[in-house]
Design a protein that fits this description.
heterodimer; B: mainly beta; 6-stranded mixed sheet; 4-stranded antiparallel sheet; 51% strand
Amino acid sequence: NAGVTQTPKFQVLKTGQSMTLQCAQDMNHNSMYWYRQDPGMGLRLIYYSASEGTTDKGEVPNGYNVSRLNKREFSLRLESAAPSQTSVYFCASSGPGGGRGNQPQHFGDGTRLSIL
Amino acid sequence: AQKVTQAQTEISVVEKEDVTLDCVYETRDTTYYLFWYKQPPSGELVFLIRRNSFDEQNEISGRYSWNFQKSTSSFNFTITASQVVDSAVYFCALSGIQAGTALIFGKGTTLSVSS
């Protein structure tokens, strides 16, 4: 059982290049999320998809777009990368899992993205 | 607005010491969930506990225990008899009650346990 799989694990881009980060989960979860983690800042939500067919902005959505391709897959796109987007990106998924309320999120291993 | 504050940026202890990681939260919701996650040096995020606002009972799991006090908006995490393997960044997080609600994370506390 792979859980949440993110690709690629590492990437270096030049300023202005575009890139799509891929995320897939095999737990039949309804909800998926994209976070970025920067030193001293914790994890900040970029976008999330509470259910297939819906997406919503999080705390730091500028410069990003997302696509909930199907129930399993949720991609994050940088249209024109900027050095400020250098970060570690985490994808997560949750629920319903048979329990009540908001279920714990399961995280992928992260994508380390450097933009020069 | 919702907010989670982890005032301790870094903590260093020697093996076998007890250590408490503080978490204070702000929310206007009357019902909510609180979480703790661990991020070891390898970088993955590991779920530790979920607590709903209805349940103020303390919880113990092995060497880990959690003290939830709604009156002070705190959800503190204690590791008893710390071990080197406990060295990690620990995150406290807050969410609404509804399924699919995103988490609001604190900035994390880096715990270093030396032998």
